[in-house]
């Protein structure tokens, strides 16, 4: 009998506590929910010109390695990604350069991928003609269209453009200048210095990366990383900025997303104005676009103009192996406020952001240009909650919970005494 009645007492006590605390917050109306994010869009552009017959990657032809990589990428495509495939130099076998330099076709339209159809289309490709890289890039940008998020083109080629004009580097600059939110990543399949310079120029003009793929595994892994990265694009194209070697002459940044390049073991400085009552939030990501030695890291710090460190960022790993990140938060309330200006408006103080890295290149790795850096800066109203270990505004909730606990214990005790008295009488 005791075991049957005690739960009732406890239940009544919990009900009393619930009544004191009040009902839970109402769920947000579905009609006010944000619209679904636009799916990431990527187009793979593959060079199928005659030079792709060369058998110098793991003893296999370049086209065979590329076809295998495409198949594995299609099989591992992240859910929701819209993928297209465009080829160049794949159909015209003649020697008329005018006609051969128009040879680019989209063999898989950008959209949800039919894996069987996509792999079948890639399997039929045979190295054939010229290398109209510039025209293929311009066409790929049209394939991807426009939208609220950045689009990515992944160009895989073993040779420089043989059809300019249009010059592919100039095409990349034109696309970037149009504000098309287009990023071009390039993969080189041949150890050729001219090809490397051209692909670096294309990638640099659009905030993309260049990688030399010297094995089938490297090519497959890199394409997968780039396709997966499309899910992490921002709603605005990063602004190209050049950090300096000291805070005094560093560029002044407003809230936004910026792209830069940083040399191995370098420090790059930027400045951000922060007013009293505001909080600075910043993050940095460095892309590993070439082989580096192990035991590396990225450090993001906020300092005063005199060099005094305000806060040191923490690692922000995402589980990815191609990007190293760090982030920090700093509130102007953490420092003594300056004297108010005659107008009553508190002047902004300058905070210096320092991006440092401990990368070291592997033997034979190109050290120029620097590693791709993406810096995100935001300035928001400072949080009212203090940073210290005290409870701050949490005291109100603590007092409410304490009162609810006392009432619960009192009710449970009274009910228990009533039940004991009743049991003894019986």
Automatic annotation (TrEMBL):
The keyword Aminoacyl-tRNA synthetase does not apply. Keywords: Membrane, Signal, Transmembrane, Transmembrane helix. Residues 41-230 form the VWFA domain. PROSITE patterns: VWFA (PS50234). Gene3D superfamilies: von Willebrand factor, type A domain. Residues 1-28 form the signal peptide. The chain crosses the membrane at residues 395-420. Pfam families: VWA_2. SUPFAM superfamilies: vWA-like. This is Ca-activated chloride channel family protein.
């Amino acid at each position: 009998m005791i075991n049957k009645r005690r739960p009732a007492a406890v239940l009544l006590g919990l009900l009393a506590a619930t009544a004191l605390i009040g009902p839970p917050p109402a769920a947000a109306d579905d009609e006010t929910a944000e619209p679904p994010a636009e799916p990431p869009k990527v187009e793979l552009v593959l060079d199928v010109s005659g030079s792709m017959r060369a058998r110098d990657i793991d003893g296999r032809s370049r086209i065979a390695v590329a076809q295998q990589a495409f198949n594995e990428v299609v099989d591992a495509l992240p859910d929701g990604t819209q993928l297209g495939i465009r080829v160049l130099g794949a159909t015209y076998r003649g020697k008329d350069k005018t006609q051969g330099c128009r040879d680019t076709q989209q063999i898989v339209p950008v959209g949800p991928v039919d894996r069987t159809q996509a792999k079948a289309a890639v399997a039929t490709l045979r190295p054939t003609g010229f290398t109209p890289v510039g025209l293929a890039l311009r066409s790929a940008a049209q394939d991807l269209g426009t939208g609220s998020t950045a689009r990515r083109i992944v160009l895989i080629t073993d040779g420089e453009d043989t059809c300019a004009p249009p010059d592919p580097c100039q095409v990349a600059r034109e696309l970037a200048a149009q504000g098309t939110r287009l990023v071009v990543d390039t993969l080189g399949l041949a150890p050729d210095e001219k090809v490397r310079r051209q692909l670096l120029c294309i990638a640099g003009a659009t905030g993309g990366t260049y990688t030399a793929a010297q094995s089938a595994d490297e090519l497959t892994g890199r394409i997968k990383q780039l396709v997966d990265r499309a899910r992490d694009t921002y709603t605005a194209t990063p602004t190209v900025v050049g950090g300096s070697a000291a805070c005094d002459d560093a560029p002044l940044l407003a809230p936004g997303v910026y792209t830069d390049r940083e040399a191995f073991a370098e420090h790059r400085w930027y400045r951000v104005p922060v007013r009293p009552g505001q909080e600075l939030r910043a993050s940095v990501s460095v892309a590993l676009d070439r082989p580096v030695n192990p035991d590396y890291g990225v450090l993001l710090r906020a300092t005063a103009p005199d060099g005094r460190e305000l806060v040191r960022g923490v690692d922000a790993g995402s589980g990815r192996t191609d990007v190293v990140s760090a982030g920090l938060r700093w509130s102007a309330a953490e420092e003594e406020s300056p004297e108010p200006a005659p107008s009553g408006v508190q002047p902004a103080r300058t905070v210096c952001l320092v991006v440092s890295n401990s990368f070291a290149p592997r033997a034979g790795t190109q050290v120029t240009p620097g590693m791709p850096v993406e810096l995100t800066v935001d300035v928001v109203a400072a949080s009212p909650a203090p940073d210290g270990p005290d409870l701050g505004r949490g005291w109100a909730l603590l007092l409410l919970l304490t009162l609810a606990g006392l009432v619960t214990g009192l009710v449970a005790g009274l009910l228990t005494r009533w039940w004991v008295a009743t049991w003894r009488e019986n």
